[in-house]
Amino acid sequence: MQHVIDLNAVTQTFVSSDGSPVTALQGVDLHLRRHEFVSLIGPSGCGKSTILRLIAGLIKPSQGEVRIFDLPVTEPRDEIGMVFQKPTLLPWLSVLDNITFPMRHKYGHVEMKEEARAKQLLDMVGLKDFGHKQPHELSGGMQQRVSIARSLLHDPDILLMDEPFSALDALTRDEMSFELLRIWNERPKTVVFVTHSIQEALLLSDRIVVMSARPGRVADIIDVPLPRPRSLATLADPVFHEMANEIRVKVFSKHPAHA
Ligand SMILES: Nc1ncnc2c1ncn2[C@@H]1O[C@H](COP(=O)(O)OP(=O)(O)OP(=O)(O)O)[C@@H](O)[C@H]1O
Protein backbone atom coordinates (compact mmCIF):
# COMPACT_ATOMS: atom_id res chain seq x y z
CA MET A 1 0.00 0.00 0.00
CA GLN A 2 1.29 3.47 -0.85
CA HIS A 3 1.87 5.63 2.19
CA VAL A 4 0.98 9.29 2.31
CA ILE A 5 3.86 10.20 4.64
CA ASP A 6 7.11 8.31 5.11
CA LEU A 7 9.93 9.14 7.48
CA ASN A 8 12.82 6.82 6.72
CA ALA A 9 15.63 6.61 9.31
CA VAL A 10 15.33 10.32 10.09
CA THR A 11 17.88 11.88 12.40
CA GLN A 12 17.68 15.57 13.17
CA THR A 13 20.50 17.48 14.78
CA PHE A 14 20.33 21.17 15.64
CA VAL A 15 23.09 23.49 16.76
CA SER A 16 22.14 25.13 20.05
CA SER A 17 22.93 28.78 20.83
CA ASP A 18 26.18 27.81 22.65
CA GLY A 19 27.31 25.96 19.51
CA SER A 20 26.84 22.44 20.88
CA PRO A 21 24.88 19.90 18.79
CA VAL A 22 21.42 18.79 19.94
CA THR A 23 20.15 15.50 18.56
CA ALA A 24 16.38 16.02 18.52
CA LEU A 25 15.48 12.84 16.62
CA GLN A 26 17.42 9.63 16.09
CA GLY A 27 16.61 7.05 13.42
CA VAL A 28 12.86 7.72 13.25
CA ASP A 29 10.83 5.51 10.94
CA LEU A 30 7.19 6.40 10.53
CA HIS A 31 4.73 5.50 7.80
CA LEU A 32 1.25 6.99 7.59
CA ARG A 33 -1.57 5.68 5.47
CA ARG A 34 -4.20 7.67 3.59
CA HIS A 35 -6.80 9.29 5.85
CA GLU A 36 -5.20 7.91 8.96
CA PHE A 37 -5.34 9.87 12.22
CA VAL A 38 -2.07 9.44 14.09
CA SER A 39 -1.07 11.12 17.34
CA LEU A 40 2.46 11.69 18.58
CA ILE A 41 2.88 11.58 22.32
CA GLY A 42 5.99 11.74 24.48
CA PRO A 43 7.95 13.88 26.95
CA SER A 44 8.69 17.51 26.33
CA GLY A 45 11.62 17.99 23.95
CA CYS A 46 11.41 14.50 22.38
CA GLY A 47 11.05 15.99 18.90
CA LYS A 48 7.30 15.90 18.22
CA SER A 49 7.16 19.40 16.72
CA THR A 50 10.36 18.65 14.83
CA ILE A 51 8.60 15.75 13.12
CA LEU A 52 5.78 18.11 12.04
CA ARG A 53 8.28 20.69 10.75
CA LEU A 54 10.07 17.98 8.76
CA ILE A 55 6.82 16.75 7.20
CA ALA A 56 5.82 20.35 6.43
CA GLY A 57 9.13 20.87 4.62
CA LEU A 58 10.10 23.71 6.96
CA ILE A 59 13.37 21.94 7.83
CA LYS A 60 15.42 19.24 6.12
CA PRO A 61 16.51 16.10 7.96
CA SER A 62 20.19 15.88 8.92
CA GLN A 63 20.07 12.21 7.89
CA GLY A 64 17.43 9.99 6.34
CA GLU A 65 14.54 11.20 4.24
CA VAL A 66 10.96 12.42 4.44
CA ARG A 67 8.62 11.56 1.57
CA ILE A 68 5.07 12.64 0.84
CA PHE A 69 3.11 10.64 -1.73
CA ASP A 70 6.43 8.91 -2.36
CA LEU A 71 8.23 12.11 -3.37
CA PRO A 72 11.05 13.59 -1.29
CA VAL A 73 10.03 16.70 0.65
CA THR A 74 12.26 19.57 -0.42
CA GLU A 75 10.11 22.61 0.43
CA PRO A 76 6.74 23.52 1.99
CA ARG A 77 3.91 22.08 -0.09
CA ASP A 78 0.34 23.08 -0.82
CA GLU A 79 -1.21 19.77 0.17
CA ILE A 80 -0.38 20.40 3.82
CA GLY A 81 -2.37 22.43 6.36
CA MET A 82 -0.98 23.36 9.78
CA VAL A 83 -2.64 24.27 13.05
CA PHE A 84 -0.53 25.47 15.96
CA GLN A 85 -1.01 25.66 19.73
CA LYS A 86 -2.05 29.32 19.52
CA PRO A 87 -4.58 30.49 16.94
CA THR A 88 -2.07 32.97 15.30
CA LEU A 89 -4.82 35.14 13.80
CA LEU A 90 -4.03 38.63 12.51
CA PRO A 91 -5.82 40.97 14.94
CA TRP A 92 -6.54 43.71 12.38
CA LEU A 93 -8.35 41.38 9.95
CA SER A 94 -11.89 40.08 10.22
CA VAL A 95 -12.45 36.39 10.88
CA LEU A 96 -13.28 35.76 7.19
CA ASP A 97 -10.24 37.70 5.98
CA ASN A 98 -8.08 35.68 8.37
CA ILE A 99 -9.32 32.47 6.79
CA THR A 100 -8.58 33.67 3.26
CA PHE A 101 -5.33 35.43 4.24
CA PRO A 102 -2.95 32.64 3.12
CA MET A 103 -4.49 32.79 -0.39
CA ARG A 104 -4.28 36.58 -0.50
CA HIS A 105 -0.71 36.41 0.74
CA LYS A 106 0.27 33.83 -1.88
CA TYR A 107 -1.63 35.04 -4.95
CA GLY A 108 -2.29 38.72 -4.13
CA HIS A 109 -6.06 38.27 -4.34
CA VAL A 110 -8.86 35.95 -3.26
CA GLU A 111 -11.24 34.48 -5.79
CA MET A 112 -14.99 34.44 -5.27
CA LYS A 113 -15.05 30.67 -4.96
CA GLU A 114 -12.50 30.85 -2.14
CA GLU A 115 -14.57 33.51 -0.36
CA ALA A 116 -17.53 31.17 -0.69
CA ARG A 117 -15.49 28.25 0.58
CA ALA A 118 -14.26 30.29 3.54
CA LYS A 119 -17.89 30.96 4.47
CA GLN A 120 -18.71 27.28 4.10
CA LEU A 121 -15.82 26.34 6.38
CA LEU A 122 -16.86 28.94 8.91
CA ASP A 123 -20.26 27.33 8.92
CA MET A 124 -18.68 23.90 9.30
CA VAL A 125 -16.72 24.97 12.40
CA GLY A 126 -19.91 26.45 13.90
CA LEU A 127 -19.12 30.15 13.40
CA LYS A 128 -21.49 31.03 10.56
CA ASP A 129 -22.40 34.44 11.97
CA PHE A 130 -18.93 35.49 13.06
CA GLY A 131 -17.24 36.17 9.72
CA HIS A 132 -17.18 39.95 10.17
CA LYS A 133 -16.04 39.93 13.79
CA GLN A 134 -12.49 40.76 14.81
CA PRO A 135 -10.47 37.94 16.45
CA HIS A 136 -10.51 39.68 19.87
CA GLU A 137 -14.31 39.40 19.91
CA LEU A 138 -14.01 35.59 19.91
CA SER A 139 -13.17 33.18 22.74
CA GLY A 140 -9.97 31.09 22.60
CA GLY A 141 -11.90 28.04 21.41
CA MET A 142 -13.66 30.06 18.69
CA GLN A 143 -10.33 31.51 17.55
CA GLN A 144 -8.87 28.03 17.29
CA ARG A 145 -11.87 26.97 15.18
CA VAL A 146 -11.01 29.86 12.85
CA SER A 147 -7.42 28.55 12.62
CA ILE A 148 -8.73 25.11 11.75
CA ALA A 149 -11.00 26.60 9.06
CA ARG A 150 -8.01 28.55 7.71
CA SER A 151 -5.89 25.40 7.52
CA LEU A 152 -8.66 23.68 5.51
CA LEU A 153 -9.22 26.45 2.94
CA HIS A 154 -7.02 24.85 0.28
CA ASP A 155 -8.46 21.43 1.15
CA PRO A 156 -5.08 19.89 2.07
CA ASP A 157 -4.59 16.12 1.98
CA ILE A 158 -2.53 16.32 5.14
CA LEU A 159 -3.26 18.20 8.33
CA LEU A 160 -0.47 18.75 10.87
CA MET A 161 -1.71 19.82 14.29
CA ASP A 162 0.72 20.86 17.02
CA GLU A 163 -1.06 20.68 20.40
CA PRO A 164 -3.95 22.65 18.91
CA PHE A 165 -6.18 22.45 21.97
CA SER A 166 -3.64 22.70 24.78
CA ALA A 167 -4.28 26.39 25.44
CA LEU A 168 -8.01 25.77 25.94
CA ASP A 169 -9.94 24.95 29.12
CA ALA A 170 -10.82 21.29 29.68
CA LEU A 171 -14.46 21.53 28.58
CA THR A 172 -13.70 23.47 25.39
CA ARG A 173 -10.91 21.02 24.72
CA ASP A 174 -13.27 18.03 24.79
CA GLU A 175 -15.75 19.91 22.65
CA MET A 176 -13.05 20.75 20.12
CA SER A 177 -11.94 17.11 19.95
CA PHE A 178 -15.44 16.04 18.96
CA GLU A 179 -15.61 18.95 16.54
CA LEU A 180 -12.37 17.81 14.93
CA LEU A 181 -13.66 14.24 14.64
CA ARG A 182 -16.77 15.54 12.91
CA ILE A 183 -14.71 17.64 10.48
CA TRP A 184 -12.34 14.74 9.79
CA ASN A 185 -15.38 12.53 9.08
CA GLU A 186 -16.78 15.09 6.67
CA ARG A 187 -13.45 15.75 4.94
CA PRO A 188 -11.15 12.81 5.59
CA LYS A 189 -7.46 13.70 5.70
CA THR A 190 -4.25 12.20 6.92
CA VAL A 191 -3.76 13.89 10.29
CA VAL A 192 -0.64 14.03 12.44
CA PHE A 193 -1.65 15.34 15.83
CA VAL A 194 0.81 16.26 18.60
CA THR A 195 -0.54 16.13 22.13
CA HIS A 196 0.48 15.61 25.74
CA SER A 197 -2.96 14.20 26.53
CA ILE A 198 -3.31 10.41 26.44
CA GLN A 199 -7.12 10.78 26.53
CA GLU A 200 -7.15 13.15 23.58
CA ALA A 201 -4.84 10.86 21.60
CA LEU A 202 -7.05 7.85 22.34
CA LEU A 203 -10.29 9.58 21.51
CA LEU A 204 -9.03 10.86 18.16
CA SER A 205 -6.50 8.42 16.78
CA ASP A 206 -6.24 5.28 14.70
CA ARG A 207 -2.69 4.86 15.98
CA ILE A 208 -0.63 6.47 18.73
CA VAL A 209 3.11 6.87 18.37
CA VAL A 210 4.85 6.89 21.77
CA MET A 211 8.21 8.62 21.63
CA SER A 212 11.12 8.29 24.02
CA ALA A 213 12.89 11.23 25.66
CA ARG A 214 15.54 13.10 23.67
CA PRO A 215 17.00 12.05 21.35
CA GLY A 216 13.48 11.23 20.22
CA ARG A 217 12.92 7.73 18.93
CA VAL A 218 9.76 5.82 18.16
CA ALA A 219 9.36 3.73 21.31
CA ASP A 220 6.04 2.13 20.43
CA ILE A 221 3.18 2.37 17.97
CA ILE A 222 -0.21 1.46 19.40
CA ASP A 223 -3.33 0.63 17.38
CA VAL A 224 -6.52 2.09 18.83
CA PRO A 225 -9.32 -0.43 18.17
CA LEU A 226 -12.12 1.75 19.60
CA PRO A 227 -15.05 1.80 17.15
CA ARG A 228 -15.91 4.89 15.12
CA PRO A 229 -17.74 7.19 15.13
CA ARG A 230 -16.45 8.04 18.58
CA SER A 231 -18.58 9.96 21.01
CA LEU A 232 -19.03 10.67 24.71
CA ALA A 233 -19.80 6.96 25.09
CA THR A 234 -16.24 6.22 23.91
CA LEU A 235 -14.91 7.98 27.01
CA ALA A 236 -16.86 5.54 29.18
CA ASP A 237 -15.75 2.44 27.26
CA PRO A 238 -13.70 0.12 29.53
CA VAL A 239 -11.29 -0.45 26.62
CA PHE A 240 -10.63 3.30 26.61
CA HIS A 241 -9.59 3.18 30.29
CA GLU A 242 -7.52 0.03 29.93
CA MET A 243 -5.68 1.54 26.98
CA ALA A 244 -5.16 4.87 28.77
CA ASN A 245 -3.46 3.02 31.63
CA GLU A 246 -1.40 0.89 29.29
CA ILE A 247 -0.19 3.96 27.37
CA ARG A 248 0.51 5.87 30.59
CA VAL A 249 2.80 3.05 31.71
CA LYS A 250 4.53 3.05 28.33
CA VAL A 251 4.98 6.83 28.26
CA PHE A 252 6.35 6.96 31.80
CA SER A 253 8.61 3.95 31.40
CA LYS A 254 10.24 5.83 28.49
CA HIS A 255 10.56 8.85 30.72
CA PRO A 256 12.09 7.59 33.99
CA ALA A 257 11.73 10.94 35.78
CA HIS A 258 8.03 10.08 36.18
CA ALA A 259 8.38 6.35 36.83
N1 LIG B 1 15.93 25.39 15.79
C1 LIG B 1 16.43 24.72 16.83
N2 LIG B 1 17.67 24.97 17.27
C2 LIG B 1 18.19 24.29 18.31
N3 LIG B 1 17.52 23.32 19.00
C3 LIG B 1 16.26 23.05 18.61
C4 LIG B 1 15.65 23.72 17.51
N4 LIG B 1 14.39 23.23 17.35
C5 LIG B 1 14.23 22.30 18.31
N5 LIG B 1 15.35 22.18 19.06
C6 LIG B 1 15.56 21.24 20.15
O1 LIG B 1 15.19 19.96 19.69
C7 LIG B 1 14.51 19.21 20.72
C8 LIG B 1 13.15 18.79 20.21
O2 LIG B 1 12.30 19.93 20.11
P1 LIG B 1 10.76 19.82 19.74
O3 LIG B 1 10.19 21.20 19.81
O4 LIG B 1 10.60 19.07 18.48
O5 LIG B 1 10.21 18.92 20.94
P2 LIG B 1 8.70 18.61 21.38
O6 LIG B 1 8.64 17.14 21.65
O7 LIG B 1 7.76 19.15 20.38
O8 LIG B 1 8.62 19.42 22.74
P3 LIG B 1 7.33 20.00 23.55
O9 LIG B 1 6.49 18.81 23.89
O10 LIG B 1 7.95 20.64 24.74
O11 LIG B 1 6.66 20.98 22.62
C9 LIG B 1 14.47 20.14 21.93
O12 LIG B 1 15.54 19.82 22.78
C10 LIG B 1 14.65 21.53 21.35
O13 LIG B 1 15.30 22.37 22.28
| Average pLDDT, all residues | 92
Pairing-aware structural class of the strands and helices? Answer: alpha/beta
**Number of DSSP helices?**
8
Strand order of the largest sheet: 6-7-8-3-9-10
Biggest beta sheet summary: 6 strands, mixed
CATH superfamily of the largest domain: P-loop containing nucleotide triphosphate hydrolases
The arrangement of helices and strands along the chain is EEEHEEEHHHEHEHEEHH
Task: Describe the model.
- The protein has helices at residues 48-56, 95-107, 112-124, 140-152, 170-186, 198-204, 232-236, 238-253; strands at 5-15, 21-32, 37-41, 63-68, 71-72, 80-83, 158-162, 190-194, 207-211, 218-223.
- Helix 2 (95-107) runs antiparallel to helix 3.
- The chain has 259 residues and is α/β, with parallel strands linked by helices.
- The longest helix is centred in the last third of the chain and has 17 residues, at 170-186.
- The strands form two sheets. Strands 6-7-8-3-9-10 form a six-stranded mixed beta sheet, with helices on both faces. The protein has a four-stranded antiparallel beta sheet with strand order 2-1-4-5.
- The mean pLDDT is 92.
- It is globular.
- The chain folds into two domains: 5-79 and 158-258, 3-Layer(aba) Sandwich (Rossmann fold); 86-155.
- Helices cover 36% and strands 24% of the residues.
- The structure holds adenosine-5'-triphosphate.
